[in-house]
Input
Amino acid sequence: MIARHRRLAFWATTLQATSLAQASSTTQPRQVPALDERLATAQADAIRARGLNSRGHVTVTKVSRSEMATLVNGPAADDDERADSLEISDEDARNFLLSLRTLTPREGRPPAEPGATETLAAQASGLYVPSKKTLFVVDEGSGAADGSVLLHEFVHALQDEHFDLGPKLREDARGLDALNARHAFVEGDATLAVLLDANLMDPVDESFLKAFTKGLVTANRKNAGEGVSHAVADSVVSPYVYGTLFVWSLYTHGGWPAVNTAWSRPPATTEQLLHPAKYRTREAPIALRGKPLGPEGFTLRSRQTMGELDVRTWLAAFVADDDADRLASAWGNGVTELYERPANGASGQAAFALRVRVRWDHGHTARATETRDRLIHAFTERFGAPITRGGTACFERPNVGPIAFAATRHELLALAGPSPLSLQSATSASATCENLFTWAKRVKAAP
Ligand SMILES: [Zn+2]
Output
């Protein structure tokens, strides 16, 4: 669950609000050269910083700010473009937002959040579209793409030329967590090249990198505003943050050749992305036992891996970042199952229900109970004490419906719903915890 904007806004202006931009702006001349000149410089810098030659050429198209917003958020012009530049389907994006809204202990402002990520994405001043072999840049006033943005985009063009970017960024049978891992790898590669070009230091110092990535998160949360939960805001910058940390870890051990080698086998999960040692051993998820099991009257609408980064982002919405890191680490596997019940005469509006399972690695299963307790604490602060039955703690919420938490032997279990299916409406969910207790009992009894 990451980067919900519908297109690849490869480089958001939030990045410019960071220490990198501040550091490099002091070394740049006051007068900004014309775009053509900046493009030529950026292309040469990209080739040098990334250590890849260019055999082909890339088309550069100048667009206005509003045209860029349409490119980033608007409907795809044709199927070919859709296949190559859509990161995830509309359906998956919607399911993600429904799930996130349900899983966080805040009422939120439901209509604001889907738009929020689009707003952030629309601030992009450069965009590389693999299917068109074209780099789109904004050439307009203060929103014009600066040198670091252009360099970053030219690195994507180099990646495409050498490693065929399109298929790497397409959702396939490996699922969203695998796509998130590849996307972050791609962004980390281009972002590290920008850091090296800024000539701050080579190799880039770890403490600088930590401060840089932390700055990205902070600046982006601020930029997103109060109406957007941290979980949603962070999902926009996560590929840059964790991708850069990952690619840096390869680079410090073997330079760009080590990164080039990794392109033939990028991280398969966000667990591998977050822990380079697990990438080296290709640690695989632990198989989850049991079949999808929804509440009575609901049918399965989607099932996705809940990766370590998803778990981390979720928890970071209400515990300190360090705690979120620790609780999510030793991730073994996870899944979200979204169930749907159509509108009908008896029950009224359409509804959905959500089941989340997180399994930790052997030897770390106490994290399941600890995470459950932290969740219960956070929801208690917001909604008052839970109703507890048979080890399941349930909270009744006025707008998004009830949610319940339990820990089984190795797993954390979260059940929610019925909740209103519409992202736009916050119509009251009258359901109580009773249905969730029944569902929890069936889930726990299932083989
Ligand atoms: Zn990028």
User: Anything to note?
Assistant: Residues 110 and 425 are 7 Å apart (CA to CA). The longest helix spans residues 230-262. The chain has two domains: 13-280, 299-445.
